[in-house]
Amino acid sequence: LLVWCVLQSYQVDLSLSFALITFAFNYIPHIGYTMSVLAPLPLLFLDPTKSSTDVVACVLWPMLIHQIFSSMLEPRLLAVSINLNPVTALASLVFWSVCWGILG
Predict the structure, then answer these.
(1) pLDDT digits over 82-104, tens only?
(2) Which of 37, 27, 76, 79 is nearest to 58 (CA)?
(3) CA–CA distance from 39 to each of 35, 58, 62, 103 (Å)?
(4) Phi/psi at 8 (nearest 5 deg)?
(5) Helices 52-68 and 31-38: angle between axes, nearest 10 degrees
(6) Per residue, what are the HEC states of the chain?
(7) Residue 26 and residue 20: Cα distance in Å, rounded?
């Protein structure tokens, strides 16, 4: 919904379609999100009414929205819903970092 609001405020054609693509692709970690941010770029580049600041804003705002949700809101809601102790979460992070390195 927020991505649609951003794209609609910059008058991007097919903003609802790109918002639905963003919703669907957010279930694919990292690659899906990148594809959903880059999807409207060809339309923005080919639209003569859009300036370069519009193009940059249409990339930065969805990135900012995703970072806020994935880094702050979702972990907090998940921790509250499953009643996870912070020490357990840190121990899990340490364990999987040791096992898998930076990918863990």
Answers:
(1) 887 878 877 887 888 888 876 65
(2) 37
(3) 6, 11, 12, 26
(4) -70, -35
(5) 150
(6) CHHHHHHHHCCCCCHHHHHHHHHHHCCCCCHHHHHHHHCCHHHHHHCCCCCHHHHHHHHHHHHHHHHHHHHHHHHHHHHHHHCCCHHHHHHHHHHHHHHHHHHC
(7) 10
Give the largest CA-CA distance in the chain.
Answer: 53
pTM greater than the 0.90 cutoff? no
Give the type of residue at 62. Answer: P
On whether the CB atoms of residues 26 and 41 are closer than 8 A, the answer is no
Parts of the chain with a pLDDT under 70: 102-104
- Residue carrying the six token digits 């008058």: 11
End-to-end CA distance of the chain: 31
